[in-house]
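Bumping with the actual sequence this time:
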Amino acid sequence: MMKQSSPESRGGRGGYRNSGGGSRGDRPARRPRRDAEEEVWVPKTILGKKVHSGSITSLEEIIESGSRIQEVGIIKKLLQDLKTEVVDVGIIQKMTSNGQSTRFKAIVAAGNENGYLGIGQGKSKQMRIAIEKATNQAYLNVSPIKMGCGSWECRCDQKHSVPFKVRGKGGSVTIEIIPAPRGLGLVAGGKIKRLLELAGLKDAWTTAKGSTPTMNSTSKAILDCLRQTFSQG
């Protein structure tokens, strides 16, 4: 009489054998995740090669020479303590001949909270790519900000506010930044206050006119304000 094999030996239902040598029902170990390797910057422009070799060591040198920055690696090399923050995201819907087209837009600010700020905007069909484009644009738009104490109530020698009153315009929005005494803080709205903090300001009065919830225009007005502290000072 032929002997029947058990379900475990023939691999039937409930009798699968683990080829890995573990107990029944064990799952194979997952592969460890690899961290994304940081891209090595290879300069392509003459200005980039000068920065990479150490001939130029500050952003002010580039601005005074009137050169145009076309590589994000230049800013990352000169300002290694920059922080990026997503300021605003949104959806752009447009009707085309093929139907409704949807894209994403993002506004990103880059600053080191110590006298440098840049703001950029990016658009794409994917949110992640839109944020990446906005981040690169923010790096390219980074500008130095001259800080000081322009308040007649304070007159200290610390760099905690703007050195004088400045006014900037972006679209329909006009923003004015007025020097304030030390310890007052930033008298501004939520997102405007955060942008000023990224720039490094600690005390200031602000006034805004126009459609300030439109962050595209508001961010441009703030950047225009802060750039004047360096150009006029």
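The tokens above came from a reply further down the thread. The chain has two domains: 46-144, 166-232.
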